[in-house]
Amino acid sequence: MRTIKHLVLAVVALTAVNLTSLQAAQPHMHAALDHLRAARAELQRAEHNKGGWRARTLSNVDKAIADTENGIKAGK
Question: For 35, phi and psi rounded to 5 degrees?
Answer without folding.
Answer: -65, -40
